[in-house]
Design a protein that fits this description.
With about 280 residues, this protein is α/β, with parallel strands linked by helices. The chain has one domain: 4-Layer Sandwich (Purple Acid Phosphatase, chain A, domain 2), CATH 3.60.21.10. Helices cover about 35% and strands about 20% of the residues. The strands form two sheets. It has a seven-stranded mixed beta sheet. Strand 6 and strand 7 form a beta hairpin. The chain is globular, with a radius of gyration of 18 Å.
């Protein structure tokens, strides 16, 4: 596809792709990247899931193809790529910062706009479970992985019945009280961080919950994930920010054949609450 035929953005923000896991929607993301053009691509953490790879998960040719797609955009389209470490790819932290020309790997990034600065961080530093109780966080990650396996089986049955994709994990998050309160505390803490840094907004990931809203006087943006939500944050050339959802985005290209037949779509507390919160942060 020619550059002129793609959707043009100034900046794209992606997070929580979790390469190296069977639930990473790699085909859809490659398709999305091929249908878009941007000047800067910000990969906001948990791009590679080192936790699951360490537990024996497999890296596939499709995952390599996504890496090549990003490198090709750097080489052929002169796209600047900023990679921020997450907690699942925290092995990078010992080497930061790294500058390979068009590829910069950092802990965090300040994104400048005409309306003010936006602080870009993965967000795991504001998840008390991840920072203080890594064992519980990893336990929650295992639980989330099992839930996703169950989700795959359940949605195969729904597909056979002619029904739409249904996310079990989103349903669990909506029902679990501590999950709801965890997200609220997480958003509030990041809002406070942005204000303390003199920024007008914050762009994060980590909790797999896409969002675009004002919290007080701070613009809060969460890029979601490419496991279930299949979302990105786009900065338009006129300065607007928008949450892009892949299935809606794809409707702009009715003649395009789908690339895959995959289904797409803090503080202390009790041990049970901590485990629930780590399930919410899931791949966090």
């Amino acid at each position: 596809m020619k550059k002129s035929e793609r959707i043009q953005y100034k900046t794209l923000f992606l997070s929580d792709i979790h390469l190296g896991t069977p639930d990473s929607k790699v085909d859809e993301l490659i398709d999305f990247l091929k249908l878009t053009h941007c000047k800067r691509l910000v990969l906001n953490g948990d791009i590679v899931d080192g936790w699951q790879l360490k537990r024996g998960s497999s890296w596939t040719d499709k995952h390599t193809k996504l890496v090549r797609t990003v490198l090709k955009k750097m080489e052929k389209e002169d796209v600047e790529v900023i990679y921020l470490r997450g907690n699942h790819d925290d092995i990078l932290e010992r080497f930061l910062p790294i500058n390979f020309g068009k590829l910069i790997i950092e802990q965090e990034y300040v994104h400048q706009t005409a309306h003010g600065d936006y602080l870009v961080v993965h967000g795991d530093g504001f998840d008390a479970v991840t920072t203080s109780c890594k064992f519980i966080a990893e336990l929650g990650s295992v639980g989330y992985e099992l839930l996703l396996r169950l989700n795959r089986l359940y949605n195969k049955w729904r597909n056979w019945q002619g029904k739409e994709y249904f996310s079990l994990s989103k349903a669990v998050k909506a029902k679990v009280k501590s999950a709801v309160s965890f997200v609220g505390r997480y958003e509030e803490q990041l809002q406070n961080l942005a204000r303390a840094r003199g920024c007008v907004g914050i762009i994060c990931g980590h909790i797999h919950s896409p969002a675009d809203k004002k919290i007080g006087n701070i613009h809060y943006l969460n890029s979601g994930d490419w496991v279930e939500s299949l979302t990105a944050i786009a900065e338009h050339h006129d300065g607007r920010f928008e949450v892009i959802e892949y299935t809606e985005f794809k409707k702009q290209f009715p003649s395009e054949t789908p690339k895959s037949d995959k289904d797409a779509s803090g503080d202390g507390g009790s041990a049970v609450e901590d485990t629930e919160e780590s399930m919410v942060a899931a791949m966090a």
